[in-house]
Amino acid sequence: MADFELILRGGTVVTAADTFRADVAIRHGRIVSVGSGLGSADRIIDASGLLVMPGGVDSHVHLAQHAPPGTPQMADGFETGSRSAIAGGTTTVISFAVQPRGASLRESVRDYHTKAEGQSYCDYGFHLIVTDPTPTVLGQELPALVMDGYTSFKVFMTYDDMVLNDRQLLEVFDCARGCGALVMVHCEGYDSIRFMTERLERAGKTAPYYHGASRPQSVEREATHRAISHAELVDVPIMVVHVSGREAMEQIRWARQKGLRIYGETCPQYIALTADDMKGFNMDESGGKYVCSPPPRDHASWEAIWEGIRTGVFQTFSSDHCPFFYEGPDGKQNAKGKTSFRWVPNGIPGVENRMAILFSKGVSEGRISVNEFVALTSTNHARMYGLYPRKGSIAAGFDADIVLWDPNRKEVIRQERMHHAADYTPYEGMEVTGWPVMTLLRGKPVFEEGRILGEVGDGRFLARELSPYATSPGS
Ligand code: DUC
Ligand code: ZN
Ligand code: ZN
Fold it and tell me: Smaller CB count within 10 Å for the chain: N or C?
């Protein structure tokens, strides 16, 4: 009988800390040994010339998210979204369970489990989106759900059906402080956006391009500062998600220099797309394909995001995969969406391209090290959201979630190669250097050379520990 089920032989292992030549031995879905001369295995995979990195953990992905009746439904459920994840080298996604206003959060979580169970190609967890922080939700449901492994919340400072006022934000932050949960905050100011939207519409400026104008960086900066101030008041760490440019980045940096535990996340669209992608000024010119919030900015903002990545302002690089169709009744181009940018569904697909975009623009173009790449796409997500030391590294004891990566391979991102359900990719035609060759989920090859080998249902739900980044000193 062989010593191991599988050995990955001859590759270069990369963790957030080190890069070294080693073989990786796997048994019962776990990494059991990393080194040389490890013994025999039922199967040997030749990894020579490839990087052996932890499978991506994408801590910001929207799948099968409930949309209010009469509004466009999301393109991906768990099956297609998780299939897209493994094709891009990601083995764990953390999606969102949304509490519709007036509903029980516990029941909402049950609904999302029904949507995900047996439907996922990769492992998954849930953040809780709190839209209605009633005394029952704050006093009973959230503390109990945290104990059950839903250890992070998301709150919104905009959107009619999600926005919390300042008092509600403070209450949710205080609840998180009490139960040790980490709060992700969508920082854009509701009133400013409404004011700008109405002004633009009155002037006849309704094309998708004006989506960006309706929520400029000052709107994001003001909300980021307000969220930070509320977190300071309550004395709780928060994660500012999907930061788009210098203004919000500098708020986070300023807060950290003051000693506050404010964390930051950014995404591919803020280093690869700009507001110009949302042109033309006509509804049919495909600008809607790039509508997401916060919106893509400009080239100077890309540089600001790189500055934030290099200097540690951002801990995580997530996709914010939030896919909508372009065509059809649920698409960006639906009849109402064509009347104003206000009604174009917000969000773009990206889970499949997140790692390739960061690798190409970051590692291949010399902006970050390959170890920083691993930290930004896997290790830091696992640490931040209570999955470490199960996910996020290559070492004995970790789940054998691994991506074999060709650092020299040149590819072009094309919709026809994507595994998501959306009918377009906003990264169409982008040339990248560095590409996933094989993805393993708990030791099982689930993707190889463009082919899905895994089965729907391979993915398991992950109950998560408390984030070590969330607990307040002295609590
Ligand atoms: N916020 C997200 O996190 N994702 C998509 C849309 C949004 O506003
Ligand atoms: Zn958001
Ligand atoms: Zn999102």
Answer: N
